[in-house]
Protein 1
Amino acid sequence: MSPRIDAFAVAPELIQAMIDMEVRLREAGLESSLRHLVKTRASQINGCAYCIHMHTREARSEGESEERLYLLNAWRESPLYSERERAALAWTEALTRIEKTGAPDADYEALLERFSKEEAVALTLVITTINAWNRIAIGFRSVHPAGTGAA
């Protein structure tokens, strides 16, 4: 796979807006571990190797267990995720696959049982932003760093 465009080099002022959003979302009060799970799950759905690589490494560096990362694509069948994380992951899947799901009421209601309305907005923006990053990385064929596989 050959990279296409380095969006950071070609349009830094436009990419900066995305980076600024990331900074604001880190300050929005959602748990870092939750943000990493959401970003990784959306990236799995979208097939974005670059983002999966980035967010699993970041999650591990902040203390996330490898077991939870390994089981993330089967989170519904695993007891390793809290009810709050389950609501966030369901919302992530609903919004990432919006053309199929239409953001079901059941997922929205589960979200509001575990998150304040402000947190729901922040989470929705995290999901929106990672989906945008996925499209940038996939569209421009960003290649993740290759190494020995060590963290």
Note: The longest helix spans residues 117-139.
Protein 2
Amino acid sequence: MLRTILLAVSSLALVAVVVSMPETTLQAALQGIALWWGIVFPGLLPFFVLAEMLRAFGVLHALSVLLDPPMRRLLGMPGGAAWAIAIGWTAGYTAGAEATAALRAEEQVTRRQGQWLLAVSHMPSPMLILIVIGAGFLHQPGFALLVAAAVWSSAICGVLLLRLAAGPSVLQPPAGSHPRTGLLGTAVEAMMEGHRRDGRSLGQVLGDAVTGSIQKLMTIGGLIILGSLASQLLQIALPDALAPLAFSGWFDSHLGTYALSAVMDRYSPSLILAAIAATLCWGGWSSLLQARSAIVGTDLRFAPFLLARIGHAALAFAAALVLWQPYSRWTSTSAWAYSSGAGHRPVGELRLADLPGLWSYIPGFMLAWAALWLVILMLTGLYWSIQRRSAA
């Protein structure tokens, strides 16, 4: 009852603030819409639709069979986990949580495995780091490479730490051999069985995939707008001594990295880049609540996921600081020059013209994503070839 009362009072207070400051509310909403339409919508829609179609036609079931032995030996996870990790690391926030929730709902992973997978697959999109932040916000693509290296290296460290923390009980032995039909035959049987259990035609699957994906993206857009509004209101309401509490990165990583890029000329570049890496790994409450909504209906818990995000952010901050000196030597200079004239933008003031869109990059990125899966399958084939030779 207390929770209901607090939510009701908070809602009334928010409505009163919105009515009393319509111009500020409008600007905050425009910021959120700009981020959603220019970055989040094109970055997630193709992957959401593709994931639903692959699941409906049994392709994910076939991939789970093919990738099951190497995934169990390397990470102690079933083959389906490779899909969640791959789509989370490429499509970005929410995609990994959606894939993990689907695997848990189908009982392809245990609760402990799903908890581990939820933490590992929640990553910022490479397009966000390399294109939006590097080229759009920082105007220094080289800095994006440092941030990406810090984010990915800290994620790998986090994977190993979580793997050790999971203990042997989360591991499962590799699947047995497939004497009757062989590996490929078993994969085809799994694909046919998965499609049979789904039972939808191509038209139904495509319509459901598009409709469901847009509904999810509308929810994501609403959370981003609320995060932008909360950041703007806190900046107005809080005194200077409490200004860090109004940092937009607490609410949304896109707004937070933009705010940090606006003060690059005021602080040490190594600290700002480390803060950007940490903000990306944290993700902001908007992405965290998106992941929370994705796991509703499963037995996966939000608190361990939240702790994993905090730990990943701390590791990324430290990794960026460690990588700064090698990066400076690699670029043959320890001096830093900011080439953009936008270094004195007010923190949190996002102009639509400063925000690069991702629509034009989608075809190339989808090809790269397909190439990644081709490499994974080739490595899987090599693994099975080595296994057969060892058995012989």
Note: The chain is about 75% helix and 0% strand.
